[in-house]
Hints:
By secondary structure, the protein is α+β, with helices and mostly antiparallel strands. The chain contains 19 helices and 16 strands.
Amino acid sequence: MQCTKIGWCSTMSITVRDCLKLPSLRNAEVLAGHAGLDQYVSTVSVLEYAKTFAMANPLFLGNEIILTAFISIKDDVDAQCEAIRRLHAVGEAAIVLYYVDYYMENVDQKLVQVANDLDFPLIVMPRNDYSLRYSDVITEVLMHIFRDQQNETRFATQLLRQISMMREQQRSISGILRLLSDRCQYTFLLVDEDGRDCGFAPWPMSIDEGFRNSVYDHIDESDDFPITFLWKDCSYVICKNSFATKTKSRFTLFSIMAAGTAEDTKILQASEVLQSSYDIWDDDLRKKTQDDLVRMVLVEPTEEVYRFANSMRLDLHPLRIMWVICPSPAEKYTYGSADRATIKYEIKKYLQANRKTGIVDTFDNSVVAFMNDDKYLEFDKDLCESLTKYLQEQYPGMILTWCGALDSITDAKRAYLLLEEYFPTACAIYAHKTVLTQRELSFAGNCHDTLHGATVLPEKYRLILKPLQGRDEKTAIDTLSAYLIDADKNIAAAAKYLHVHESTVKYRLNNIKRKLGYDIAEMPGVYSLYKALALNRLLHTRNNIKY
């Protein structure tokens, strides 16, 4: 889900209810989530492209009003419901739907029910009105927030209240620094008493790596603060402020801002917020382990990930295998966070017992593990199959997706995006598999693109299966699908899936070869046949697939 952040962050007392009184929202209808109307509002974001993975992006800090028309998922109610769940999970304040009855035919009752269950305000702008502009709401809400900021310069107490309302996974030093940076419009760098980097939040977000390195260089070279430095013909100031927590831990906060904009009250309040946060949530904020790298890799694969890994004395480059364990679409809501935590623990033990270097953590609805690959692929394959057998015994419906040859953290994120996009499609094609590979995800994506929007098998692939038409057509297609897709050309396995004797499968396959006129096990004919069967299977299960 791609989102564009608009404006600055406020930590004052503006609520969704207050925003609904603004002229641009006065005629909007609250369809659901009335109990959440007193949620604080910090800023406004525009949802451009609804894909669930990006909901984990650290740019989602909560307390935002989200404006969207759900254009990319206008016909997919399940995806709309999932978007609402994700927005609620990251602590957003409300969603405002535009162009209902123009792009979206209506607001499905399932969407209303989800919003009500979560107490998440679902607001609909006047229907069938294409003249409505996002900019009207953006301008009015941000001006309302700005005026509130101008009237109240003491923000520490209210910001701490906002932090207390964060969900545990959001309440991190990075998240708190981001809130402070947005509120003060300063760049913040926090280090501990040993000089280790605890968090960095740039302002604006577009500041590049070169600026950050310049800040580090000037801090290392100077003991006398504040200091002034030039970056791309602009003058900046670095201020330094230290504080101690109730556990006697000492931290130093460096505040970086454009020359002439430094305000002592902002800097002191930022330190106060951080000190109080450590005093209140010390255990949460200190839970930095190697496993945190999983989320960092999948959310925002930047040089920061390598820096953190180096500080933990871990080399990420040999970790070229990624396992993603998540439930099949049919079992999506069967297993909860406690199950994922147990699976994480079991996988960590399993990797350690097999002398694998690895990091494991829960992520979204899955458990993700990165590990080094063995010089013999068969060894890693055996490990995977043994683990999958255990998972199927303890957690039926769990699927392990194996992605290998990941030579960078960018490769890892790309592989996870592929999984998120096409996992349901792959599960429909490979209905009997408990281990999926990156190649099968790519093939599922290819099938998805071929079939997208079609209600019948495309002509090219219909002609491939045409020789099988007749009284035994369904039996022939079922047999071929089991043999090629499910059993990987293993007759015994195909017989098991079809609940028939092996000799029956052999007899059917001989008849099929005669009708098709070529050997169904030889390339290139088998590829076109394989894809035609996969597309045919998708057509029969498309009601369960998110297109």
